[in-house]
User: What shape does this take?
Amino acid sequence: MRVLGIESSCDETGVAVYDTALTGPEALRAHAVYSQIALHAEYGGVVPELASRDHVRKLLPLIRQTLAEAGLGVSDIDGVAYTAGPGLVGALLVGAGVARSLAWALEVPAVGVHHMEGHLLAPLMEDDPPEPPFVALLVSGGHTQLVAVDRIGQYRLLGETLDDAAGEAFDKTAKLMGLPYPGGPQLAALAERGTPGVYKFTRPMTDRPGLDFSFSGLKTQVLMAWRDSDQSDTTRADIARGFEDAVVETLAIKCDRALDAAGCDVLVVAGGVGANRRLRARLDEMARRRGGRVCFPRPALCTDNGAMIAFAGALRLEAGQHNPPQVQVTPRWDMATLPAV
Assistant: This one.
C-alpha cells in the first residue's frame, strides 16, 4: 500500500510517500519538508494566520515534487494520511482539506493522524524497530511527555510537563540571552563551546517522586545568571552548556524512572529535541547501564515531517481504519483516546 502523508500542524509543510510493500528505511519512498522559519523570524514566533497561508502556497507543489522523487503518479496512491491534530486549527484545515480532496478524487481511503502518535512511531521506520511494550519520550517545542506504549494505538500517559515543554524552554532561554529565532538549535550549538560545570543549574522536580516535568524555573535561573554576568561570548556559551546539561540530565533521570515504572528496558525518543546530540548520548548511556536499548528516528525525522504521518497512517489504513469524507480536525486531542491498531 502506497500512502501519501501530509503534515501541516504548525509552521512546517511536510509530504511523504510510504510503501508498505517495502521494509526498513527503503519503505520511505520520498519525503520533503518546507520550513517557514524565515517567514516567522521577524516576529520571534509562529504567526498562525501566516502559517496557514504559507501551507496553502506550498502544499500542492510539495506533493508534486515528492511524487516525482518517488517515481509515482497521483493515480499510484492507495491511501492518504494527514495530521488532524493537535495543532493550529487553520494550518490543520489546509492539510486536511487537500488530503480529503485527493482521497475523494482518487476514490481511496483517508485517515486523520494524531501528530504526537506520528512522532512516537517515527523510530519504528528504522532498521531493527522496537516492539511494544516500551516507554516513549516525546520531547519537542510543544510537548514533553513520557508514555507507556502497550501496543500500537494503546498509550498510557506516565508524566508530562506542568509548564514549558523542553523545546520551548530551549527557545525561550535562547531568546533571553539574545540569540536569534529559532533559538533552540542556536543554544545547543553554542553549548558545544561552553565549559561544563561553570554554571550548574538545578534538575527540576528530580528531588521528589513522580514523572512530571517543569522547566519554567530553570529558565528563570538562567535569566538571573545571565543578568548578573558580564554577558561576554564565553559566559553566554558557559550558561548555555549549564542549561543544556540540566535539561538533558533531568530528562534522563525521568526516563530511568519511567522504565522502572513500566517494567521494561526499551526507550523510544521522538520529537525535535530528540535530535540533540548530548541528549542522545546520555540516554544511550542510561539504556546500556540498564541492559536495555534506546531507539531514535534519524535526525531529519525528529522535527515535524510528512514521513511520520504517512507511516502512522499506513498502519491504521492497513488495519482497516479510516475517516468519513468530512474535513474535520481536532486542535486539542488526547492521544489516550485513540483506538488500538
